[in-house]
C-alpha cells in the first residue's frame, strides 16, 4: 500500500509539509512523465484527508474510507477522466452540479482530473471558473504529462508539484533493497518510476506473460513474416486488450530491440530483456544489423504514437510487422 514514506520523493516534500501544518492549497497541478506516480500522489492526498485512523499524515490504508478511495468508490472523491480523446464540458458541468451540494459523508470534497491537458477549451474554462471561486472545503487536483498544454490561467491558480523521475539506476537499487531481484528490478525500473507500479509488475502474471510474448514476437520477426503475423493474431489480440496493455507491449518490444542494439555496441550491462551471454541474443544480433535496429526502434515509436491517435491496435501491429520485414 502507498504511503508518504514509501513514496520517498523529494518532490512530494511540499505536500508532506503542507499536510503536517494543515496548510493544504485549494488546487494542485501535479505534472510528470508516465510512471512518476501522479495518480498515486493524488490518491494518497485524498486518503490522508479522509482516513478514519491516520498516524500523523500517513493514512491507515485499511479503513472503509481508504479502501473506497482506492477503488474510486468514495462519494466525496470524484475522478474525471477523458471520454475518448478529451475531457468534455459536460463532464465538468456534472462535477459542478455534484459539488453544489455539501459532502455526503464529510464536509470535504476532492476532485481529481486525470490527463488535464485533454480538457476541451469549454471544459477548461469551466474548470477555471471553479478554481476562481474556491470553497474552503473543496480541493482540486489536476494531473498531466504535458504541463505546457495547461492554460496559464489555470496554472496560476494551482500549486504546481513537478514529479521528476528518479534516475533508473537509483530506482533499480531501491527496488533491489526492497527484495526485487536484480534482473527484474532492471526491467521494471525502465518501465516505471512508481514504486507501487513496480511491485505490481513484479508480481503480475500478466506482465510475465507479456514479456514472454514480446520476446517470442521478436524471434518470430527474425524468422518470417508469417510467424510474426501468427504471433499477433494468436497472442497479441487476446493478451493486450486495453490501451495501457498495448502500450506496455510496445514498450517491451522497444526494450527487446534496444537490447539487441546494446549487444552490438558491447553495452551488455544495460540490457534488460535478454541475457547478454545467451545463444538467443547472438542469433538475433546476426539477424538484425545496427542500422536495421535503429530503423525498427523508430518504427515502434511511431506505432506508439498511432495507438495514442486511436488507430486500431491490431492494424498498428500488422503495419509494424510489414514495415520491419520490408
From TrEMBL:
Segments passing through the bilayer: none
Listed Pfam families: DNA_pol3_delta2
Keywords associated with the record: Nucleotidyltransferase, Transferase
InterPro entries found in the cross-reference section: DNA_pol_HolB, DNA_Rep/Repair_Clamp_Loader, P-loop_NTPase
Xref: Gene3D superfamilies: P-loop containing nucleotide triphosphate hydrolases
GO molecular function: DNA-directed DNA polymerase activity
Enzyme Commission number, as recorded: 2.7.7.7
EC class (word): transferase
The keyword Transferase belongs to this UniProt entry's keyword annotation: yes
Highest taxon in the source lineage: Bacteria
PANTHER family referenced in this protein's UniProt entry, alphabetically: DNA POLYMERASE III SUBUNIT DELTA, REPLICATION FACTOR C / DNA POLYMERASE III GAMMA-TAU SUBUNIT
UniProt xrefs under NCBIfam families: holB, PRK08058.1
Protein name in the entry: DNA polymerase III subunit delta
